[in-house]
Design brief:
Layout: E1 5-10, E2 18-22, E3 38-43, E4 59-65, H1 70-83, E5 87-91, H2 100-106, E6 114-118, H3 121-130, E7 134-138, E8 145-146, E9 158-163, H4 172-177, E10 180-183, H5 195-209
Parallel strand pairs: 4-5, 4-9, 5-6, 7-9, 7-10, 8-10
Antiparallel strand pairs: 1-2, 1-3
Helix pairs in contact: 1-2, 1-5
Length: 210
């Protein structure tokens, strides 16, 4: 049976702990924080399938080069499925869906997105470039351009987005092959985002700008 949640609230005014409760699995009546009685505040709303992403592109591929975290890769699979990525190239040390932890993070999205494991990302991207794919590297370099102001520079309906290792950055060999290097501007003290978060920002920004 599918989970059906209600948002419940502790009846103790000094506590007021409010949280969603899966009524299909647990018929709890007492607050886990103070042991007072719980009351149902409101049932969950009915969720609907969102409208599809409107783009004019014909092919969007993504290269994940030496991304070690299986959880990040799983998250990227989930986002890739939602934006309509045509293929994920899992290069170098990047884990692939044969790792059971990836499926847990991706919620099964690896079954809906084409992927292949590749040993050498430089050779792979060189091959994509020969097939007229526009290569975009997501990396903060001295010559990188702001992603929010450069979307219209992509004059191609076939793009390959390259993401690299979080500690080491993108392989210089891949940067040399790139037609465009982009960065995501930030106002905080940290100089980078989690790679799966950065991918989500880049994918939606690029696909809606092209």
């Amino acid at each position: 049976m599918a989970a059906r949640f209600s948002f419940v609230e502790c009846c103790n005014p000094n506590c007021g702990f409010r949280f969603p409760l899966d009524l299909c699995e647990y018929q709890g009546k007492f607050c886990p924080r103070c042991a007072s009685r719980l009351g149902i505040a409101v049932s969950q709303i009915d969720q609907h399938q969102p409208a599809p992403l409107s783009t004019t592109r014909t092919c969007f591929e993504v290269v994940l080069d030496n991304i070690r975290s299986v959880h990040n890769v799983g998250s990227i699979f989930r986002t890739a499925e939602s934006v309509g990525v045509d293929h994920l190239y899992l290069c170098g040390l990047t884990p692939n869906p044969q790792n059971p932890a990836l499926s847990k993070a991706s919620l099964g999205a690896e079954m809906c997105v084409g992927w292949s494991a590749e040993n050498n990302a430089v050779n792979l991207v060189a091959g994509r470039k020969q097939k007229n794919s526009f290569i975009i590297a997501l990396e903060s370099t001295p010559t990188a351009q702001n992603i929010f102001t450069t979307g219209k520079l992509v004059q191609s309906n076939r793009i390959t987005l390259v993401l690299g290792s979080e500690p080491a950055g993108i392989d210089p060999g891949l940067l040399a092959l790139s037609d465009l290097t982009i960065y995501i501007p930030m106002s905080g003290k940290k100089s980078s985002l989690n790679v799966s978060v950065a991918f989500g920002i880049a994918a939606y920004t690029l696909l809606t700008a092209i």
